[in-house]
Write a structure and sequence with these properties.
Helices cover about 35% and strands about 20% of the residues. It contains nine helices and 15 strands. It has a six-stranded parallel beta sheet, sandwiched between helices. Strands 7-6-8-9-12 form a five-stranded parallel beta sheet, sandwiched between helices. Strands 2-3 form a two-stranded antiparallel ribbon. The structure holds magnesium ion.
């Protein structure tokens, strides 16, 4: 009880989406309930998702379908965070991407131009549910010639509503196997890049914020990297906690987000 109370005294909450609020397009009841309770308490909330196919606009529509009214500035998706990272580091770029329209929307919104693989100065790798041989061929050629190469997120697999589905790692792994090249930067969790952006958006120092997620290596690791308190929920891919090394363990483990209030 004491740990819950200490966590609830924090100013800001950085919440993972898949496995905390929903599984695919289906809401997790306790997750949605938990978000409402946090907002009612007047907490600052930012959602941070490693999803590489949806834009912020698409995620807002999904939240609305769960009965949660959130604004664009409460959401950081790996798509948006990647577009914003590239702009901050290099300005507006000519980009070739393996990604879907959600990523293209965020890249173009940030001023980057989508071009063919032969003309790109940057390769942005992200999931694509219509991935095929032709797109992999272009990605391969781009990867072999381009100077800058980033990936939206490092996820090998994602929790779909009926079981695991391939993540961006499917393409990162294939390109590595073919070329020996790994991305220069990976933006999504557990990278500090996306977490710093979340803290900035919250207007909180790390010690004022709590990170909540369903994966130890992704969410808990990301929270610890920037110095936040961490909560692991068992409503997503992690069903049992078995952390051998104490420094990797979350501060609290609960069944779902609403359990913080019980
Ligand atoms: Mg998750």
């Amino acid at each position: 009880m004491q740990e819950e109370q200490e966590l609830l005294s924090k100013k800001g909450f950085i919440l993972d989406v898949d496995g905390v609020i929903c599984r695919g397009s289906r809401p997790i009841e306790g997750g949605v309930e938990g978000v409402r309770a946090l907002l009612e308490m007047g907490k600052r909330v930012v959602f941070v998702s490693n999803n590489s196919t949806r834009s912020r606009r698409m995620l807002i529509n999904r939240f609305r379908s769960f009965g949660l009214d959130v604004s664009e500035d409460m959401i950081i998706v790996a798509t948006y965070a990647t577009a914003s990272y590239l702009k901050r580091e290099f300005g507006e770029l000519d980009v070739f991407t393996t990604g879907e329209e959600g990523l293209v929307e965020e890249l173009e919104g940030m001023g980057h131009r989508i071009v063919d693989y032969g003309k790109a100065e940057c390769l942005v790798v992200a999931s694509n549910r219509n991935l095929n041989y032709d797109l992999m061929t272009k990605a391969l050629r781009c990867c072999m010639r381009v100077e800058k190469y980033v990936a939206t997120n490092p996820d090998r697999i994602f929790p779909g509503w009926d079981g695991p589905i391939p993540g961006t790692g499917m393409i990162v792994g294939a390109l590595y196997w073919m070329t020996g090249r790994m991305p220069d930067a990976v933006v999504g969790k557990p990278s500090e890049i996306i977490m710093r952006e979340a803290l900035e958006k919250l207007g909180c120092k790390p010690e004022e914020a709590v990170v909540v997620g369903d994966q130890i290596d992704v969410d808990v690791a990301a929270g610890k990297k920037v110095g936040c308190k961490t909560v692991l929920v068992l409503s997503g891919v992690t069903k049992k906690v078995n952390v051998a090394e104490k420094e990797k363990a979350p501060d609290l483990v609960v069944d779902d987000l609403s359990c913080l209030f019980k």
